[in-house]
From TrEMBL:
Species this protein is from: Corynebacterium gerontici
Record GO terms (molecular function): kinase activity; protein-N(PI)-phosphohistidine-sugar phosphotransferase activity; protein-phosphocysteine-trehalose phosphotransferase system transporter activity
Gene symbol of the encoding locus: bglF2
Name assigned to this protein: PTS system beta-glucoside-specific EIIBCA component
Cell location: Cell membrane
Domain PTS EIIA type-1 residues, every copy: 24-129
Cellular component terms per the entry's GO annotation: plasma membrane
Keyword Cytoplasm: no
Boundaries of every PTS EIIB type-1 domain copy: 191-273
Length: 676
């Protein structure tokens, strides 16, 4: 064997065939990569084709990934469409991160069970990065036992690999061209883009369900290996591809809802998952694993609960700012009917947050959204609000006791403007509801299940869980405020420099509810003012690319990305440009740090939810225009100027486009987090 080649072994006893003869059009087209198949494999132990590290183990046991010592990424796929068998014919014996030797047993496969289910048993071994790593595969069709030589693959030299980068892009372009030829002539605009996306991710039959957020189409696929990432990412109208949290995410930007509607129209409403969780996570086998799963699930619930109402919060913040300007310039007064009407428009979404968040959280957690929304109505009922204003007549563990229930002393908190208690209520409802449906007879279920659920969950929140959650969330908010009070300038520098990193990891969803809670409880948020500066900085970097680049497609991305960031949504700028082109994100982060430092130094406060440049009205103090507004303008101007200048001079050049890195969200333990 040459020192520039690698031997790949047969996973099972059977006939070694070229990959273009395997009975799956995606694998046979080499869209996943070059390799080989094992036709008519024998049941029994499956063996690894090469030594390396296990990089992926499918939950259903039908596939594994291996990174070899030579840098090859191998996908071993047991049978065709066997993901639908939910793991029944397989027994996996390895786990992610494990080192394996060539020919080591990694699973067992029952071919009779696969055939009995009407599936093909052919095993596929694909080198998913073959375009970059392989020169050719020396192949001859022959019989081989498990662990015997299947093929010998010649590796590319480093120079050859670099030369083939352009060829890889050409392949993606060709895949797009092939799809366009097959696309029905009557499709255009978003319908055409939706058709192209669906066909490049393996077709409609490869999609389990789809949902969307502010910037992304989020697909749950049967088999992610069938998707042509490069071709999808290079479509006009697509910013990038991100694989996160079991989802195949296609970053679209401002047109996400239009593209989503077109996708659902072609897929069918039955595959529109909304915000429900459709992917089951593996059960942890350690205490730390449970901690990570709990944290991952919490972020997921917060994300799913908050995304649908972010636009409402932003719009309400803008109305609040406009109302502040009207009172500042004496167009109206606080005791006028005009003020009261506009104030109701701006304040209602915050006051009734438990109702809205209850509805969306219930959808996420599988409870009845209407019932949980009614529980949110209980929490915001005028009588509960009034009771919460009573003076405390005692305390228990620092929790004031200001009321009683059948003589039992309790704390009655104010839940208007709150978020976390109703999310807990939705979780309790998701556990109580199935139990009630099991014990309540069908004949009276329609009446008594909602009745009992509202009573049980409402009492659980009002008497026990609500006060505890309010105590904890209040403590967290106080802790952040304490850190800010300790040194607003240093806090601004640190948060300004690193907040957008939280967005990459999906951790910003743990911060956004704190901001909303802070604004709801106190009417303002210093933290949100710092976050606003980071949005402006990301937009400044995208603006520099727009001004500097001479590439039409890059300009086409940079323009909308800049506008989006200045409107408070940074993902198009970050994933479409700033992270993708190396130094740009670092330059934008420096700009965010500079803006955050000045925001803290000037003690800039913020009275609305909407940040970035479009949120200028949020910096108008309802009691009268003060230096927060001018501090916002100065800090935002500096953040914009620093990120723009650094990016223009040091962060980007058109030659970077040819070396663009793939941008993916980073996994936290078993999780690749979601974003907006």
């Amino acid at each position: 064997m040459s020192e520039h080649s690698v031997r790949l072994l047969s996973p099972a006893s059977g006939t070694i065939i070229p990959i273009d003869k395997v009975p799956d059009k995606v694998f046979a087209s080499k869209g996943v990569g070059d390799g080989f198949g094992v036709a008519s494999p024998a049941s029994g132990e499956m063996r690894t084709p090469a030594a390396g590290k296990i990089t992926m183990v499918a939950k259903t046991g039908h596939a594994i990934g291996i990174r070899t010592e030579e840098g090859l990424d191998l996908l071993v796929h047991l049978g065709i469409d066997t993901v639908e068998l939910e793991g029944k014919p397989f027994e996996m014996r390895v786990e992610k991160g494990q080192q394996v030797e060539a020919g080591e047993v990694f699973a067992t496969m029952n071919t009779k069970a696969i055939e009995g289910a009407g599936k093909d048993t052919t095993i596929i071994v694909a080198v998913t990065n073959s375009k970059k790593k392989l020169d050719a595969i020396a192949f001859d069709e022959h019989q081989a036992d498990a662990g015997e030589l299947a093929v010998e693959a010649a590796l590319k030299s480093e120079k050859s690999a670099q030369q083939d980068d352009a060829a890889s892009k050409a392949v993606a372009t060709q895949a797009q061209a092939d799809v366009e030829k097959q696309r029905p002539a009557e499709l255009s605009g978003f319908d055409a883009l939706a058709w192209d996306i669906l066909n490049l991710i393996g077709g409609k039959e490869n999609v389990k369900s789809v949902t969307h957020c502010i910037t992304r189409e989020r697909f749950y696929l049967h088999d992610e290996s069938k998707a042509n990432d490069a071709a999808v990412a290079d479509l006009d109208g697509v910013i990038d591809v991100v694989k996160a949290g079991g989802q195949y995410q296609v970053v679209i930007g401002p047109d996400v809802e239009d593209v989503y509607d077109a996708i659902v129209k072609q897929l069918g409403e039955d595959k529109a998952a909304g915000e429900q969780e459709v992917e089951k996570k593996p059960r942890p086998d350690s205490a730390w694993g449970w901690v990570k799963l709990g944290f991952s699930s919490l972020i997921g619930v917060i994300t799913g609960s908050m995304i649908p109402i972010i636009g409402l919060l932003a719009a309400s913040g803008i109305i609040k700012g406009i109302l502040s300007l009207l009172t500042t310039f004496e167009v109206t007064t606080q005791d006028s009917n005009t003020f009261q009407i506009i104030n109701a428009m701006s304040d209602s979404v915050f006051f009734f947050l438990p109702i809205f968040v209850g509805f969306t959280a219930a959808k996420r957690l599988g409870a009845d959204p209407i019932i949980v929304a009614i529980i949110g109505g209980v929490l915001t009922h005028p009588s509960i609000v009034e009771l919460s204003k009573q003076d405390a007549n005692g305390s228990f563990l620092s929790v004031p006791l200001n009321g009683d229930f059948f003589g039992l002393p309790i704390n009655i908190a104010s839940y208007s403007y709150s978020i976390f208690p109703i999310i807990v209520a939705a979780w309790v409802a998701s556990k109580v509801e199935p139990w009630l449906k099991r014990i309540v007879p069908n004949t009276v279920r329609m009446i008594f299940v909602p009745l009992l659920e509202v009573v049980i969950v409402s009492l659980a929140i009002l008497l026990i869980l609500g006060p505890v959650v309010m105590f904890i969330s209040g403590g967290i908010a106080n802790g952040i405020q304490w850190l800010y009070d300790l040194s607003p300038t240093i806090s601004g520098l640190f948060i300004g420099g690193f907040y957008q990193v939280l967005v990459i990891f999906g951790l910003h969803w743990a911060v956004i509810p704190l901001v909303a809670q802070d604004i709801a409880n106190t009417g303002h948020s210093y933290l949100n003012a710092i976050i606003s500066a980071t949005m402006v900085a990301q937009g400044g970097a995208a603006l520099a690319i727009l001004v500097k680049s001479k590439i039409a497609k890059i300009k086409g991305l940079a323009g909308p990305a800049t506008i989006s960031a200045f409107c408070g949504v940074t993902e198009p700028a970050m994933y479409g440009l700033n992270l993708k082109y190396g130094r740009v994100f670092a330059m934008a982060s420096v700009g965010g740090a500079a803006g955050g430092l000045l925001t803290g130094l000037f003690n800039v406060n913020m009275w609305g939810f909407t940040g970035s440049l479009i949120g200028f009205t949020s910096f108008v103090n309802p009691d009268g225009l003060d230096f927060s507004f001018w501090g916002f303008l100065i800090a935002s101007g500096v953040a914009l100027a620093v990120s723009f200048t650094l990016t223009y001079l040091f962060g980007f050049k058109d030659s970077d486009v040819e070396q663009a890195r793939e941008v993916k969200k980073v996994r936290l333990g078993n999780r690749e987090p979601v974003a907006k």
